[in-house]
Write a structure and sequence with these properties.
CATH architecture of the largest domain: 3-Layer(aba) Sandwich
Oligomer: single chain
Largest sheet: 7 strands, mixed
Shape: flat
Number of strands: 16
CATH superfamily of the largest domain: Periplasmic binding protein-like II
Number of domains: 3
Order of helices and strands: EHEEEHEHEEEHEEHEEHEHEEHE
Length: 293
């Protein structure tokens, strides 16, 4: 009998592992860890998590072993190898694990565009992505495929340049390397298989997607409240960062002033508050948002 529990594949270790668990907990799912840390059960929903290698997550989902997966877009792009029919659908970006796949070389390397790679050896753990990048520019470079520690390749004379993931750039700096060109912008994404879910799993799947969207939407969002002159409303709406149409209500006993409530999807800085104050706004409150749907 087929399991009536939804299965989500996540990274068992690495930069996305803990963030994936944080997202799932923030979505209100209570987790119980199994023996060996290779799986979790959700107490308050028919959902199980499987902790696997990041490279295996697309295969688990495409083959129907898992219903959803949380994986870096870079892993999907490397796996796809230019194909669009790989049995996976990207449901949504998740707002964490942001990084770039970059061409980098030792400091002092004269990089005059991608054509400067012609005839060189380039080390990478993403040979498919690098190959497509070179092919699109009609360049002929020798790709040196490595499992890890790509940043040491130039120092060991294995390659003149590298193609590797960059998040903060600290690893490049520590190895005397400089990033010159970005091949791919990546972050963690939620993926599902291209086929239809079993009817008994659709409610749980819809809940996962809706809750994840709520968590992602609330990241960095702020709830802003203030009293303001009615005449200043157009200017205030322009100042509020990333706000949709705010809620405006009259103040008791005053025809010239209103209360303004708005959800701001972008950062609210002190400069923002000062600009609001300059319009005549008062009693300005900025509150964090824990959940939003």
């Amino acid at each position: 009998m087929k399991s009536q529990r939804l299965h989500i594949a996540i990274q068992k270790s690495g930069r996305l592992a803990e963030k994936s668990l944080d997202l799932i907990r923030a979505a209100g799912f209570r987790l119980t860890r199994s023996a060996g840390d290779l799986a979790y059960s959700v107490e308050n929903a028919p959902i199980d998590l499987w902790c696997v290698r990041d490279d295996d997550i697309p295969t688990f989902v495409a083959d129907g072993v898992a219903d959803f997966g949380i994986v870096g877009r870079n892993v999907l792009a490397e796996r796809a190898d230019g194909a669009n029919d790989d049995g996976l659908v990207e449901v949504m970006p998740l707002g964490f694990g942001r990084c770039r796949l970059c061409i980098a070389a030792p400091e002092g390397f004269v990089y005059d565009g991608a054509r400067g790679l012609n005839g060189l050896r380039v080390a990478t753990t993403y040979p498919n992505l690098l190959r497509r990048f070179l092919k699109a520019r009609r360049l002929d470079a020798d790709i040196v495929t490595m499992r890890g520690a790509v940043e040491v390749a130039p120092r060991l004379k294995l390659a003149e340049a590298i193609c590797d993931l960059v998040s903060t750039g600290a690893t490049l700096d520590a190895n005397g390397l400089e990033a010159f060109e970005t091949i791919l912008e990546s972050e963690a994404v939620l993926v599902r298989g291209a086929g239809d879910l079993a009817p008994e799993l659709r409610r749980a799947a819809d809940s996962v997607v809706a809750r994840f969207k709520g968590v992602v939407a609330s990241q960095g969002a702020k709830y802003v409240m203030m009293n303001a002159p009615r005449a200043a409303l157009p200017e205030i709406i322009e100042i509020l960062p990333g706000a949709e149409a705010p809620t405006v209500t009259p103040l008791a006993g005053r025809d010239d002033a209103v209360a303004v409530h708005a959800v701001c999807q972008e950062s609210v800085f002190w400069e923002t508050l000062e600009a609001l104050k300059a319009t005549g706004a008062s009693a300005i409150l900025v509150l964090p948002i824990e959940k939003m749907m």
